[in-house]
Write a structure and sequence with these properties.
The chain is α+β, with helices and mostly antiparallel strands. It has a domain at 10-249: Beta-galactosidase, Chain A, domain 5, CATH 2.70.98. Helix content is 35%, strand content 23%. The chain has 15 helices and 28 strands. A 9-stranded antiparallel β-sheet has the order 6-7-8-9-17-13-12-11-15. Strands 5-4-10-16-14 form a 5-stranded antiparallel β-sheet. Helix 5 packs parallel to helix 15, helix 6 (322-335) runs antiparallel to helix 7 (360-377) and helix 7 packs across helix 9 (423-442). 53% of the residues are buried. The model has no long low-confidence stretch (mean pLDDT 97).
Length: 647
């Protein structure tokens, strides 16, 4: 199976199918029937072959082409224009997934830019590793529908055109696609196949249009039926339907007057990306399109975290899409554990995803987000339905308190790097309890509201009284930080307060009492959880310290914490915009606009925002697009706009 690139450039989809592509127009991954699972694409090569000559097919992704790529206006229709003077061709590839259908359209315009007539064929090499499997796949050519079909168990994909195929081959087809000499093999237990279409004699300057449809289904018959319908409807009608859908989607948003065109473009692209990265059926948001399925550098991204999703949902809410957010939070009730907590992350269909421990800020964030959604939407029906989950969740986080410190007990931090009693986690629990208490009073449950507020106030008081670090002019990152035995012994020898905990089987956890590292997540004490007021002197000093210590010296932007090694320890878009949002709150609008402008400048040629920016080169460093980055962008734009300070 081909190793796919970590960095992709564009995405298209319809909230059920998600497709990622690179700037050369090459199809990298195709997810269906959910945007996170399963992934079915290995290779899909397209190119032109000049017939009657001893030459090979010139594939569009190969060296020698020059590319221009853009979305068609304010849509999720992606066009890649490629020109290769040596071969004498231009190819204009337009990709889109049809709303409400299981159809992916790839429309091609092939132009002869040479000075002589040539007989041309268009060739595809189609290699589907259905369900991400190399074994047990079958490929066949269906004579009746004139299409190639890939299938494995409950997934099938039919690939065809309104043009009649001239040649085909099922299995072991790469060399055949290069020479455009296919053997007519109709079926084989392999992943790949090839088809070519005769475009006829192209005169100099002549252009021909060829639509290719990729239709998905849960059976071979379903996929073929979907393809048949797409061919009958035609690419032009499907294009118009898709363009109209995205136009209507944007009309539903809160309308902002954003004067700067680049700021506006990234804002609109953020709204469009939210829809692609939101599941149509269940309503969950994934952190990003998957780029690291082998966990080479991370634990993967195509999952729904309560942490990311709470920020994303808040941004989507403020942008005006309340129904989307209601669906998401209603879906979280199905994910809630029996004890009232929410596990670290889930697949979009609700199944538990791979995790590495409880992350208490996620439970707090979901409860905080539910309250925020009610404030934004005023939806009483939503509140009535969600209240049992709120009560159950708030009772859990209210009980998850360390009596020794009055902070939430040790769990993973928001970066999933360390175990301890983190101040960010405490702020999220505070926000969850405070929001839940307000909702409790709407149900005449003052007893619960009082109980949860007492715990929230105790958390706040403890942080104010015991967690200030005078030496760094900021709050501590946390207490009871888990370390290895060597670090524990070194800290103990240095006279630092330490402790050892033993579990029921006698295994030790070594801890140091204070974690003094300055971390951008300390902004969470105010943004968004409002535990400490923004004009609190210590909160302001903490923000100043974050900016002083964590500003990336070469390219700008804000890093997460000193010594960060993840993907090189780069500045992140979301961390930079986190500080921008805090500056809005304290009236430093010019500083906030500077960080917003920096973030706009980091968007790629399509207006998509990555997770990180390489601290030396300024190039995107990891995960494109990151949904949380776009959420923080939208929240920053709206925060400035509400103050009349955006422009």
């Amino acid at each position: 199976m081909r190793k796919k690139p970590y960095l992709i450039d564009g995405i298209i989809g319809n909230s059920k199918m998600l497709v990622s592509l690179t700037k050369d127009g090459q199809l990298q991954r195709l997810f269906w029937p959910h945007i996170d699972f399963s992934q079915h694409m290995n290779r899909f090569y397209t190119g032109v072959h000049v017939d009657g000559e001893e030459n090979e097919t010139v594939f569009m992704h190969e060296d020698g082409w020059k590319y221009e790529q853009k979305y068609e206006g304010d849509t999720n229709i992606l066009t890649t224009a490629a020109v290769q003077e040596e071969s004498g061709f231009t190819i204009r590839q337009t990709d889109y997934v049809v709303p409400g259908k299981d159809t992916f359209v790839r429309n091609y315009r092939i132009k002869n830019i040479s000075d002589f007539s040539r007989k041309v064929s268009f060739v595809i090499y189609s290699d589907f590793t259905v369900d991400d499997r190399v074994r047990f796949n079958t490929v066949l050519f269906n004579q009746e529908e004139d299409c190639l079909v890939h299938y494995h168990r409950e997934y099938a994909f039919a690939v065809g055109s309104t043009f009649e195929a001239a040649q085909y081959q099922s299995g072991l087809a790469l060399d055949a696609s290069k020479t455009n000499k296919m053997n007519g093999k109709e079926i084989m237990n392999k992943t790949d196949g090839s088809v070519s279409w005769n475009l006829g004699m192209l005169e100099p300057g002549e252009e021909v249009e060829l639509p290719i449809f990729i239709a998905a289904g849960h059976t071979v018959e379903d996929a073929i039926c979907e393809l048949r319908e797409a061919k009958h409807t035609g690419a032009e009608a499907l294009y118009k339907k898709t363009a109209a859908y995205w136009e209507n989607y944007l009309k539903q948003a809160k309308q902002l007057d954003i004067k700067d065109s680049k700021t506006r473009d990234v804002y609109i692209r953020s709204l469009l990306a939210f829809k692609l990265l939101n599941d149509e059926e269940k309503g969950g948001f994934i952190a990003g399109p998957e780029v690291d399925e082998d966990y080479d550098y991370s634990g993967g991204y195509a999952y729904c975290w309560g942490r990311d999703a709470a920020y994303i949902a808040n941004a989507v809410d403020k942008a005006g899409y309340h129904g989307t957010v209601s669906k998401f939070y209603n879906a979280t009730t199905e994910l809630q554990s029996e004890d009232g907590s929410w596990q670290q992350r889930h697949y979009i269909d609700g199944k538990l995803a791979p995790t590495w421990g409880l992350q208490i800020d996620e439970s707090g964030s979901i409860l905080w987000g539910i309250h925020q959604h009610y404030l934004e939407s005023g939806d009483e029906q939503f509140l009535q339905g969600i209240w049992p989950a709120v009560q159950k969740g708030a009772e859990f986080i209210n009980s998850f308190i360390d009596p020794e410190t009055n902070l939430p007990m040790p769990s993973k931090d928001l970066w999933e790097k360390r175990d301890g009693e983190h101040l960010y986690s405490a702020a999220a629990v505070y926000g969850g309890l405070a929001g839940s208490a307000e909702l409790a009073r709407k149900f005449d449950r003052g007893d619960l509201a009082d109980k949860w507020e007492r715990t929230a106030h105790l958390i706040k008081a403890t942080i104010e009284e015991k967690c200030w670090n005078e030496s760094s002019d900021s709050y501590l990152r946390g207490l009871k930080l888990a370390v290895d035995q060597k670090s524990y012994e070194e800290a103990k020898s240095a006279g630092k307060l330490t402790l050892v905990e033993y579990n029921k089987k006698g295994y030790p956890t070594y801890r140091v009492w204070e974690d003094p590292v300055v971390d951008v997540s300390l902004l969470g004490l105010n943004v968004p959880f409002n535990m400490l007021p923004e004009n609190d002197q210590r909160m302001m000093k903490t923000a100043e310290t974050i900016e002083r210590i964590l500003t990336s010296p070469i390219v700008g932007g804000i890093e997460r914490f000193p010594g960060d090694v993840y993907i090189g320890g780069n500045p992140w878009i979301l961390t930079t915009l986190w500080l921008a949002q805090y500056y809005v709150r304290i009236g430093k609008y010019e500083k906030s606009r500077e960080y917003l402008k920096w973030s706009v400048s980091q968007a790629n040629h399509l207006g998509l925002l990555p997770e990180q920016i390489d601290k030396k080169t300024g190039e995107p460093a990891w995960v494109m697009p990151l949904t949380w980055s776009h959420a923080m962008y939208v929240l920053t734009v709206i925060a400035l706009e509400e103050k009349g300070e955006l422009d």
